[in-house]
From TrEMBL:
Taxonomic lineage of the native organism: Eukaryota, Sar, Alveolata, Apicomplexa, Conoidasida
Pfam families assigned to the protein according to its UniProt record, in alphabetical order: Methyltransf_8 (PF05148)
Region feature Disordered, mapped onto this chain: 283-333
Positions with biased composition (Polar residues): 312-333
Source species, domain of life: Eukaryota
Organism: Gregarina niphandrodes
Protein location: Nucleus, Nucleolus
Any single GO BP term: methylation
Protein name (Swiss-Prot/TrEMBL): Ribosomal RNA-processing protein 8
This protein's GO CC annotations: nucleolus
Length: 333
């Protein structure tokens, strides 16, 4: 009888613990859904509206107070990617700093400021081994540009004047369509998955204005965003940007390096804004939409190591569908 009482007492004491764990799990799940909803809402506004209108809408909804959720959601999506375009862009920028004396680097749409972090402590190879060569020692600075500042340690500070940004670098909070810096102030501009908004050609125009002649513009986007990659390149070429290098990263990202050849040729009207599809995220689980597709997605958004998402199909990958229709977006948070 005593043993039965002990077992009953033990089970009674264990039940509140199980309930507490279940409650914590439920709260974490609900918190994740709320953050995911905020991320999708901000992401959809940024991709489907002109940049100024999107920022105005975000301010009206006070969503800029939750910019952290956007950066966190973006970072979470990155964990499901097979690679990241900055893995290829950063070494190329380092070479330009070391061999071409590039001094001012613009990271337009900087997100969590990875370019600033890595270039600030970039490593250079010497005969005696690897030595740390910070940007200041190389005479170079990074100006990180985004619509809202991320939260975290090691982020670049804001500056009071454009002259200070050019001299010391920092974080500049503004729209990519209106960068408050003088003409011909930079040697390199980077657009890493940041041609967002229906007015993204104005972002290219700002890069042409800001980057010196013979300077470089790196553009990295999800391959399936390009309706016609060749047409995209030809349009930028007519605007004075010459393609230097193009590469596909795991059949997932397209990375293009342009040289600013003739700034006087730039005409925004020559660039088709609908040449890039918006990147939109779905709440539904991933599923295969093409039986003959070489890709293989799972419900948790991960994929088999040896297989990659197809290009220009609009297929759902993870929780992301680059050209989802209005029907797909119905019922989103």
């Amino acid at each position: 009888m005593l043993g039965v009482k002990r077992r009953l007492a033990k089970s009674a004491s264990a039940k509140p613990l199980d309930d507490t764990r279940a409650l914590k799990k439920l709260r974490l799940c609900e918190d994740g859904r709320v953050k995911g909803g905020k991320f999708r809402r901000i992401n959809e506004l940024l991709y489907t509206l002109p940049s100024d209108e999107a920022l105005h809408q975000l301010k009206a909804e006070r969503s800029l107070n939750h910019a952290t959720h956007y950066h966190e959601g973006y970072d979470e999506q990155m964990t499901k990617w097979p690679c990241h375009p900055l893995d290829k862009i950063l070494p190329a920028v380092k070479r330009k700093i070391e061999t071409e004396n590039a001094r001012v680097i613009l990271d337009i749409g900087c997100g969590s400021c990875r370019v600033h972090r890595e270039l600030s402590t970039m490593t250079g190879g010497q005969a005696s081994g690897q030595t740390e060569m910070g940007l200041e020692r190389k005479g170079a600075v990074v100006i990180a540009v985004d619509f809202a500042a991320p939260v975290g340690r090691g982020l670049p500070p804001k500056r009071a004047t454009a002259e200070e940004y050019i001299k010391r670098g920092g974080f500049l909070e503004c729209s990519a369509a209106h960068v408050a810096l003088p003409d011909d102030c930079a040697d390199v501009a980077i657009f890493s998955l940041s041609l967002m908004g229906t007015d993204w050609p104005t972002f290219i125009g700002e890069a042409v204005r800001l980057v010196k002649k013979k300077g470089s513009v790196f553009i990295a986007e999800v391959s399936s965003r390009f309706k016609q990659p060749g047409k995209f390149i030809r349009e930028l070429n007519r605007c004075g940007l010459v393609l230097v290098k193009q590469q596909d990263l795991d059949s997932y990202f397209s990375i293009m390096t342009f040289r600013v050849q003739d700034k006087s040729k730039f005409d925004q009207q020559l660039i088709s804004a609908d040449g890039l599809k918006p990147c939109l995220y779905n709440r539904t689980k991933a599923h295969k939409t093409d039986k003959d597709s070489p890709s293989d997605t799972r419900s948790n958004g991960h994929m088999h190591k040896e297989k990659h998402p197809p290009v220009n199909t609009g297929q759902t990958y993870g929780k992301w569908k680059p050209n989802s229709t209005a029907a797909d977006r119905t019922g989103r948070n």
